[in-house]
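ZP: hey, is the protoporphyrin IX containing FE complex queued? I don't see it on the tracker
AM: it wasn't, my bad. submitting now with these inputs:
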Amino acid sequence: VIKEDQLTATVPDDVEFDLYDERFFFDPWPVYQKMRDETPLFYSEKHDFYAVSRWDDVHNVFHDPQTYSSARGGILEVIKMNIEMPSGVLIFEDPPSHSIHRKLVSRLFTPKRIKALEPQLREFCREVLDPLVGQGEFDVIRALSAHLPMRAICLLVGIPLEDQEFVRDAVDKALTTESGEAMTEDGLLFTGDVFMKFVEEREKNPTDDIISQLLTQDFTDEHGEVRKLTKDEVCTYITVISGAGNETTGRLIGWATKYWADYPDARRELREDFSLIPNAIEEIVRIEPPGQAVARYVTKDVEVHGTTIKKGDIMLAAMASANRDPRHFPDPDTYDIHRKDVAHMGFGAGIHFCLGNALARLEGQVAMEEMLKRFGDWEVDMDRAVLAKTSTVRGWKTLPVIPG
Ligand code: HEM
């Protein structure tokens, strides 16, 4: 756990791109800049991986899954664990199984389904934020970030309201890494037992919800067999979605709250015109993407910036750095809610492009709109703000908001 007052203005020379080093995590931006300019192909002696940081190079990695495979995991420590992935963990798969599983899970994320969640998400924000009006300071992470994303996932898959808190706690416990620690195998292999009770219930009493649909629809699997998904597979999908969509989206809300405090003119404009909010949220995912980098296993020798990377090596694609590459974005370190071509890689790119992007955007927009409606102005108390450091997601663990 890192306190903002521990942040230093300048990063010591020996700090390099290292997702397990708190000093890097405090302020990764000067390190990325140095990498982009001086070592566009970076090699980490300490952890034995390569990394690219410029927009074009990161883009290439995302778009060449034949060379840069996800099948051994998309996180550095997961690739190093060298474990057999359960089938259906689509974020850690290559085609053809990835394409089949992604198509199945995509059924959850149709624009119609996502849009249908909006009133319930708004209602939830109202319930949470209304009691805070006139109460003085509150922690936006505890109030909103810790609940809204899992609530959205539960609504999406049809977990009953009374069970949602319990599910959130179980998922958090299994998947959240502690300060400075890498993800553990236990967390990774968390098989979604917590969801089994709901899946079994739907098997007995199917409704028109998504769990029932996943259980009853036929599909052609990677062996060419036409069949239905097993209960375990359905649990795996829900677990993957929870793992990918919970902490990430929570951090997005924290960053938006922090930036809208730091940029009061932008906040005032947004308050006057809610139609500007979607672009302002997009710009948050560009400038502060909760995920810093993805990892890939290199399947064949490949030359990058004059160096041959060998089959079996690990390549990290630092999309957080790409999102601030001046070769691609003018004035990249400025938060500009009117930025025209904000298209970034905060949600990844290529075949693994974030399936939940529309849901994450909707949650960010609704949460921040409801914040603006109640608290036209606010500051954040950086003396007591705490940055959570996990190897996968960067953002605030505590962010006290002082309404103006
Ligand atoms: C601000 C919030 C979010 C961010 C920054 C984010 C970021 C990402 C990134 C970078 C990837 C690509 C990983 C890779 O290429 O290895 C990804 C994939 C994925 N995300 Fe998100 N995500 C967010 C929210 C969500 C939500 C809300 C959900 C679902 C409820 C979700 C579900 C997924 C899934 C299922 C994949 C795997 C897709 C595939 O492998 O084909 N994400 N996300």
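AM: back. Residues 70, 74, 90-91, 102, 153, 240-241, 244-245, 248-249, 252, 285, 289-291, 294, 346-348, 352, 354-356, 359-360 surround protoporphyrin IX containing FE (CB under 6 Å).
ZP: great, adding it to the tracker
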